[in-house]
Amino acid sequence: MDGFWYFLGDFFTGIFKAVPFMGLWFNKFLIVIGFIAFFAWLNYMRQNKEVEKFD
């Protein structure tokens, strides 16, 4: 299990080294991805209107 966490840490360390080169474009990219995911989720919820009842 330790291998997974080391891999995850190395992965994010690599990403964080590349982020300063991208500047504000990376933030804008993440915001756009967030909006796309939000509207995709709204569309998914609109298509599947089944209500789950919890007893």
Radius of gyration: 18 Å
Number of strands: 0
Average pLDDT confidence is 87
Q: Which structural class do you get from the secondary structure elements?
A: mainly alpha
Rough outline: flat
The helix/strand order is HH
Write structural notes for this entry.
The protein has 55 residues and is mainly alpha-helical. The protein has two helices and no strands. It has helices spanning 2-22, 24-47. The radius of gyration is 18 Å and the shape is flat.
Fill in the keyword field for this structure.
flat, 55 residues, mainly alpha, 2 helices, single chain
Short description:
This protein has helices spanning 2-22, 24-47.
How does the SSE layout of this entry go?
Blueprint: H1 2-22, H2 24-47
